[in-house]
Amino acid sequence: MAVETSPGPTRRSLLAPVTGRLRQIALLRESPVGMVGAALVLFWALVALFAPFLAPYDPNANDYLALADPTPSAEHWLGTDNQGRDMLSRVIWGSRTVLTVAPIAVICAYVIGCLFGLLAGYYRGWMDTVMMRIADIILSFPVIILYIIIIATYGPSAANIVIAVTFTAAPQIIRIVRGLTLEIRERDYVAAAKMRGESTWYIMLVEILPNARGPLIVDACLRMGYTIIAIGVLGFLGLGLPPPDPDWGGMVKDTYGFMSIWPHMALIPCAAISSLVVGFNLLADGLREISLRD
């Protein structure tokens, strides 16, 4: 006798995450603030992606003829810096630097933060106590001091910037994930997973973490903004990417001494940093509005 199968529930369960994402995108369209933020982030993402095609000059090429008048002109739309390098090209290539280093640093911080936050919130007891005390010790230091200590010790490079940001951001994420885990672990679907005999890692990664994604996504957008500012500050202090790589913070450092004569040299990279940070903050506000509507 043939046995009838019902693929409907399985198909619905597989399509549920996709449906949820489409619904979030639709709701984001109803948030003007979120749409402005998404547009700013998308703009800089496209600029970074197509930097080799958008930049009119090599970002490190020197136009010594432009040193006589580095202000914006037909040849250099945003002018040149104090070394005759095209500002537009350096801003475009600098976006690729920022949007490569910052996401990697935030992802690394979230991998560590989610792992230890889940363990602390799920097991509690001595594990929770030890992890929270370690996090408190790291958080007791000023962030900029930790950045300077790490970068000055191991040298300025993209990898060391990622390490510094991960080391300082992970304890904050641990505390957020721990608080969410303490709440979600008492839900009925977690108890049902335990009764089915699911493993601890399955419960944490499949039942708890996905149901904490709302606040974590909002925090990730905000943390991207903080990380971009941190990269800019490190570049301004001379602890960013080694020259001559285009770095928005390094561009400000190299040209802030000419603010009284040619202010565009420092204001343009500052405007780039501000617009990208504002974009992530507005996107986070839009996502928060969506979470409040659900």
What can you tell me about this protein's structure?
The protein is elongated, with a radius of gyration of 23 Å. The protein has helices spanning 7-28, 32-49, 51-54, 87-123, 125-139, 143-154, 158-184, 188-195, 200-208, 213-236, 248-255, 264-293. The two termini are 46 Å apart. The chain has 294 residues and is mainly α. It has 12 helices and no strands. The model is unreliable at 1-18 (pLDDT under 50). The chain has one domain (40-293): MetI-like fold (Orthogonal Bundle), CATH 1.10.3720.
Key phrases:
MetI-like fold, 12 helices
Tally of discrete structural domains: 1
**Main pleated-sheet profile:** none
* Total strands: 0
Spatial gap, N to C terminus:
46 Å
Q: Strand-residue fraction?
A: under 5%
Tell me what the CATH architecture is: Orthogonal Bundle
| CATH top-level class | Mainly Alpha
Shape: elongated
Question: What is the topology?
Answer:
Elements: H1 7-28, H2 32-49, H3 51-54, H4 87-123, H5 125-139, H6 143-154, H7 158-184, H8 188-195, H9 200-208, H10 213-236, H11 248-255, H12 264-293
Compose a concise summary of this entry.
The chain is an all-alpha fold and 294 residues long. It is built from 12 helices and no strands.
